[in-house]
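Today's session is about reading a structure prediction critically. Students often jump straight to the picture, but the first step is always the sequence itself: look for stretches that repeat, for charged clusters, for runs of hydrophobic residues. Only then move on to the predicted structure, which in these notes is written as discrete structure tokens rather than atom positions. Here is the chain we will use throughout the hour.
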Amino acid sequence: MAGDETMKILVTGATGFIGQKLCEVLSQSGHQLVGLSRSADSAKQKVPSLSEVFSWDPEREYAPMEAFSEVDAVIHLAGESVAGRWTKEKKQSIYDSRIEGTKHLVGSMLKADSKPQMFISTSAIGFYGERGDDSLGEDESPGNDFLANVCKDWEAASKPAAEQNVKVANIRIGIVLGPDGGALDAMLLPAKMGVSGPLGSGQQWWSWIHQADVVGLIEHILDQQIEGPVNLTSPNPMRQKGFAKVMGDVLNRPAFMPAPSFALKALLGEFSVELLSSKRVLPKKAQETGYTFKFPELEAALKNILK
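Below is the predicted structure for this chain, in token form.
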């Protein structure tokens, strides 16, 4: 699979914030796309670039074998959103949608008449846990909080594919910024009201990435046949306080109103840990393999999205 070859690619999570944009770009590059979705009819309407969509409930069943016919690569983006209060049921759904879904997908993939050459499976920078000011490349060890354990098991669920000579990349995605969805949607209302400021101390590192670079890096991984963990983050993470200030400047709104840790914990419960924890994640493998970021700086990224 050289960079100029077109492929047949199976995508899960095609209707999501990243999936819709990825399918649009891959289709423009000439690739044939098929999808797996809980609602095949709805997915086909939402993502017209999918030539065919197969029904699949990732937590409860193996993926249909016919979906893998002549497929060159599989991109697995499906998973329950981590945003919102983490009830016991929400945490179970976060875990099962990722681990059981990946196990079921890989199980079917390896029984297919012809296995795909490449499997790109989503993970997250939550893998690293709370790490203070440490600079984190792909070779760092995992953390030990809830999301770190989810990510660790999530990545482990893709390993049987690697053991059967499928090239596997685990993409550890940071805070994705883009229009019409993602982390920015939740940040915009308070920012526009001028009450967006430091969360907790504001000293925690936020490792962000523009949606266009998530898509660009997935294409880069396909083209270059990159294996193993790959950090999908900008080369310039920012402390949350600085992040809030840049956003306020772009919106021409003040960004000084703090949100104390205790208030966030009361409002969001355990999910507040993710907003308050520090992960200074660097895209070492992306840079070493020659990827050029479209939006390496936060101000330009936000201006592009909010224009």
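Discussion point for the tutorial: The longest helix spans residues 88-111.
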